[in-house]
Amino acid sequence: MRPTRLNRERAARILDILEQTHADADCALHRNNAFELVVATILSAQCTDERVNQVTPALFRRYPTPDAMARARPAQIETMIRPTGFFRAKTRSILGCARALVAEHGGEVPRTMAAMVELPGVGRKTSSVVLGHAYGIAEGIAVDTHVLRVSNRLGIARGDDPIEVERQLMALIPRERWIRTTDLLIFHGRRICQARRPACGVCPVFSLCRWPYRQAYALGQTPRIKARGRPS
Ligand code: SF4
C-alpha cells in the first residue's frame, strides 16, 4: 500500500472510526510489569489470551522476577504452562529470555527494539507489544493474525508477510497511533471482522472497506475467504 496523502487520510479515517467503536481496546494479557508482559506474550503464541491469563498468576507468583525464572527447572515451567500449547518450545523461550535479561540487561526488560529482538523467543511482534504497553514506546506495529487479516481486508496493507505488512502500516500511519493501531485492529478482528464470517452488515468501516467485501455483502453472500482472510 503506497503511503500517498489519500491513503494516509483513509487510514486515519478508519482508525478514527475504530477508536470510537472499540474505545476499550487494550492488550488483554494480565501483567504487572514489563517482564510479566514479555512472558505472557511469548505464551500467547497459538493460544488465546484467556488461557494465558489462567496460567500466568501461578507462574508469576512462583517466579516473580527474571532472576527467579532463570533459575527455574524446565520441567516445572513446562507443567505450569502446558495448557497454552507448544509448552516445551515456550519453556525454552521463557527460560532463555529470563537468563538473557539477567546476564545482559541487569534483570530489566530493555527499552529498544534492537535489544528486544536479540532476546530468545522474542521477535518484532512481541517487542512491539511490550515496548508499547509496558513503556509507551512506539518502535513498531505488532502484526498478529487479526491485524494481518483486517488490514488486508480494509486495504491499508497488502500481503501475507507480517514484517512487510508492518512496514506498510508504519509508512501509512503516524507514529503516535502505532500502539493503538494494533489494539484497534485486533479488537475489530475479534468482534466484527472475524476470519470466516465478517459481520459486514454491522461494520462501522463498511464504506471504507475494499470492494469485494462490500460487493459480497450487497449480494447477500459471504465472501470466499482465503487462509489469510483475503477475498479469493
Ligand atoms: S466491511 Fe466486512 S470485511 Fe470489511 S472490515 Fe468490515 S467486517 Fe471486515
Give a verbal description of the structure.
- There is one protein chain.
- The chain folds into two domains: 5-24 and 142-218, Endonuclease Iii, domain 2 (Orthogonal Bundle); 34-131, Hypothetical protein, domain 2 (Endonuclease III, domain 1), CATH 1.10.340.
- The model is unreliable at 227-232 (pLDDT under 50).
- The chain has 232 residues and is mainly alpha-helical.
- It starts with a helix and ends in a 14-residue tail after the last helix.
- The protein is 57% helix and 0% strand.
- It binds iron/sulfur cluster.
- Iron/sulfur cluster binds next to helix 9.
Tell me the β content. Answer: under 5%
CATH superfamily of the largest domain: Hypothetical protein, domain 2
Largest sheet: none
Secondary-structure element pattern, one letter each: HHHHHHHHHHHH
Domain tally: 2
Distance between the termini: 19 Å
Contiguous runs where pLDDT drops below 50 for at least 5 residues: 227-232
- Please state the oligomeric state of the protein chains shown: single chain
Taken from the alpha-carbon principal axes, the silhouette is elongated
Small molecules held by this entry? iron/sulfur cluster
Question: Helical percent range?
Answer: 55-70%
Number of separate strands: 0
Global mean pLDDT:
93
Number of helices: 12
Radius of gyration: 19 Å
Q: What's the architecture of the largest domain in CATH terms? A: Orthogonal Bundle
User: Can you tell me the CATH class of the largest domain?
Assistant: Mainly Alpha
CATH topology annotation of the largest domain: Endonuclease III, domain 1
What structural class should be given to the helix and strand makeup?
mainly alpha
